[in-house]
Design brief:
The chain has 340 residues and is of the alpha/beta class. It folds into 3 domains: 4-47, Orthogonal Bundle (434 Repressor (Amino-terminal Domain)); 60-158 and 290-309, Response regulator (Rossmann fold); 160-288 and 324-329, Rossmann fold (3-Layer(aba) Sandwich). It is built from 12 helices and 12 strands. A 6-stranded parallel beta sheet has the order 2-1-3-4-5-11, with helices on both faces. Strands 7-6-8-9-10-12 form a 6-stranded mixed beta sheet, with helices on both faces. Strand 1, helix 5 (72-87) and strand 2 (91-96) form a beta-alpha-beta unit. The protein is elongated and about 80 Å long.
Length: 340
């Protein structure tokens, strides 16, 4: 088995230089770095990560614990995390909880046993148990995407309430008075905040009595089921607001299956975008969050905590959303337009 001394001899450098290349520490010229990397490749040298972590008390490993790996929002967010971590010399373990508190608890215990250097957590619900467990082990932590009641923690998220308000107000300005919203679980802050934004817009415009809100899960199946439920009785809304992209896909399919055209019969809008491969063309009117930048910023903040860089006390960084008007919302509603 090749050793660091074998690599150093083949590359014509000192062992400390090989160590610096492996650990990405200290200044090494590009020419020397390339010689060392070639020697490592030729010899098949594998650094002893366990021994190195025992010396440095670091594993150079981060974990991203998130709720739905199939959601394009989280897929892009995870890429932002991985790219940023890789540049800084960290590997990332990805853990998908499916919005399950039990899965989250199990993953947190496993990650702490493996002594990861820091954890990025998208909480499965409103329970703060995981936060307390992580902090009791003095493991750096950043909460992603969601608001939590725990004040002593860093948070990086999008403006869910503001984005929901903007979408609802847009529909009201088009003339809609009967607008329904389908949102996620009651114990998830993004679901609660998007419902709050919707209700605020409705109430400010004198439409409190017209509020139609439904909780479920942030999935296509739930979006489909809730939409069928909404349009099975009167009064039927003229516009539907899906509180995430997967619910919007389910809603769109349900409306088509039961014979309602979007946007001719029903306007449809979504929080977060739908990938182009799931629609024939950019179709859905949406507000979007900068998912890659969310992952990038959260990872930068976590690494700064790991390195004990000077930083303010715990931060809550809220990214603004961006509005895109497309075909699914239709034009202004008027008396001559077809009603369901």
């Amino acid at each position: 088995m090749a050793t660091i001394h074998n690599v150093a001899k083949l590359a014509g450098v000192a062992p400390i230089t090989v160590s610096r290349v492996i650990n990405n520490s200290g200044y090494i010229s590009d020419k020397t770095r390339k010689k060392v990397q070639v020697a490592i490749s030729e010899l098949g040298y594998v650094p002893n990560i366990l021994a190195r972590s025992l010396r440095s008390k670091r594993t150079n490993t981060l974990a991203l614990v998130f709720t739905d790996i199939t959601n394009p929002f989280f897929t892009i967010l995870a890429r932002g995390v991985e790219d940023t971590a890789s540049i800084a010399g960290f590997n990332v373990i990805f853990c998908n909880t499916d919005e399950s508190q039990e899965k989250e608890d199990n993953y947190i215990q496993l990650l702490l046993q493996k002594q990861v250097d820091g954890i990025l957590l998208v909480p499965a619900g409103s329970n703060t148990r995981s936060i307390k467990v992580i902090q009791e082990q003095n493991t750096p932590l950043v909460i992603l995407d969601r608001r939590v009641s725990h004040s002593n923690v860093d948070i990086v998220r999008g403006d869910s309430e503001g984005g929901a308000y903007q979408l609802t107000k847009y529909l009201i300005d088009l003339g809609h008075r009967h607008i329904a919203i389908i949102s996620g679980p009651r114990n998830v802050s993004t679901a609660e905040d998007r419902l709050l934004g919707y209700k605020r817009a409705m109430e400010e415009n004198g439409l409190k009595e017209n509020i139609q809100s439904y909780y479920g899960r942030f999935t296509q199946a739930c979006g489909n089921d809730l939409t069928r439920k909404i349009f099975s009785h009167d009064p039927k809304p003229t516009a539907l607001f899906a509180a995430n992209n997967l619910m919007a896909i389910g809603a769109l399919r349900a409306l088509r299956d039961i014979g309602f055209k979007v946007p001719d019969d029903v306007a449809l809008v979504s929080f977060d975008d739908i990938p182009e491969n799931l629609t024939a063309f950019p179709f859905m009117t949406v507000v979007t969050q900068p998912s890659y930048e969310l992952g990038k910023r959260a990872t930068e903040l976590l690494i700064s905590r790991i390195k004990n860089d000077s930083a303010p006390e715990n931060q809550e960084i809220i990214f603004p959303v961006e509005f895109f008007e497309r075909a699914s919302s239709g034009g202004p509603l008027n008396d001559t337009k077809k009603r369901i």
